[in-house]
Each structure stands twice: as structure tokens, then as C-alpha cells.
Amino acid sequence: MSKDVLVASPDDTIEKAATLMAQVNCGALPVGENDRLVDIITDRDITLRAVAKGNPPDRCTVREVMSASIKYVFDFVNTAAAAERMSQQQVRRLAVLNRHKHLVGGCLVGRPCRETERPGRDRASGNFKTERHRRVADL
């Protein structure tokens, strides 16, 4: 999980949002307003809902094209549960929020459990185990 997150404003132009995405080499930005996460904007949103329709990037706002609803996971949820939620909701990105629903981390892309699966032997039993139960905030 990335803790250095750039957040777009709903009133930003999509040109500014695309520039921010290019700066950090990502395809999505959380959208925040009044210290609250309100939505997410993706490169796909910009392409299909603005550029393909001829909306000028320097005048079209994030609010006009951002996704319909944001999908998120709390920072105390383990990575296996986050991966399951991504699979069930058929999304590649989840924002990471704390218990107060404030954004605390970047969006997860792909399969978060892949990064944390570390096979090893349990010292007590000698059986092989996989560390899958790390919290999202530990990534």
C-alpha cells in the first residue's frame, strides 16, 4: 500500500488529473472533497467518458467523468479478504480507508496477496505455511 497518495478534486480538470497520473505512473486517482473520499477517477473514465466524446480536457472536470461509485477496503482488513472483495466486485483497484472512512493509502492494483505470499515452515509443526493474513496497511 502506498501511503503517499495524490488526490484529485472533483473540480480539477481531467487534464490536471491525467498529469497527476502520469507523474506517479498510475491509472487511477482517488477523488477527495472536504477531507472525505468521494470517488475515484481512472484513465479509462477520462478516455471513454471525456476524450471519446470530444470533451476538451482543459475544460472538462473530474466530477463530470469520475466513476459512479468507489470501491474500498479498510486498512485493518487482511490481504486475502481484500483480494476476495476485488474478485467479487470485479475491480482492479480498491482505495484503502481507516475506520473513520478517511483515505490512508493508495489503491491496490491486481492481486495484493501475490506480493505477500511467502512460503515457509511452521516451527512448531514443521508444516509448510503461507503468510496470507497480513493487513492491507502492512503492504
How would you portray this structure in words?
This protein has 139 residues and is of the alpha+beta class. The chain has two domains: 1-70, CBS-domain (Roll); 71-139, no CATH class. 27% of the residues lie in helices and 24% in strands. The protein contains five helices and seven strands, in the order αββααβαββαββ. The chain has helices at residues 14-24, 43-49, 62-65, 79-89, 112-116; strands at 28-33, 36-42, 72-74, 93-97, 103-109, 119-121, 128-130. The protein has a three-stranded mixed sheet, with helices on one face. Strands 1-2 form a two-stranded antiparallel sheet. A two-stranded antiparallel ribbon has the order 6-7. β6 and β7 (128-130) form a beta hairpin. The radius of gyration is 17 Å and the shape is globular.
